[in-house]
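Q: Got a minute? One more chain.
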Amino acid sequence: MIGGEGEGSAMTATDDADDPVLEAELDRALAPYRGLVSDEVLAQLRETLGDALASHPVGSLLLDRTRPPPVVVKSGEVAKDAGEAEEASVKRRRGGG
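A: Always. Here it is, folded:
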């Protein structure tokens, strides 16, 4: 976070590494600034931009639009995240969906 210690941030460096799409977009967006600003400034910009893309409604929508479409193995509902996928799987096994 620029001008702060980064406490209370919605996203951490570990979160970045867990999302290859976000990582790629941050790399692409910050590439023109490498060599022009210090590594510390780049890290602050990366954190701020990552927070915005991951937590702001418009930023997260734009980031989602860069994601590849899900691979459909069979007909049915498509879960948005792993938690929803597990929930749907449990429902189907129990005969509820």
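A: The chain has five helices and no strands.
Q: Perfect, thanks.
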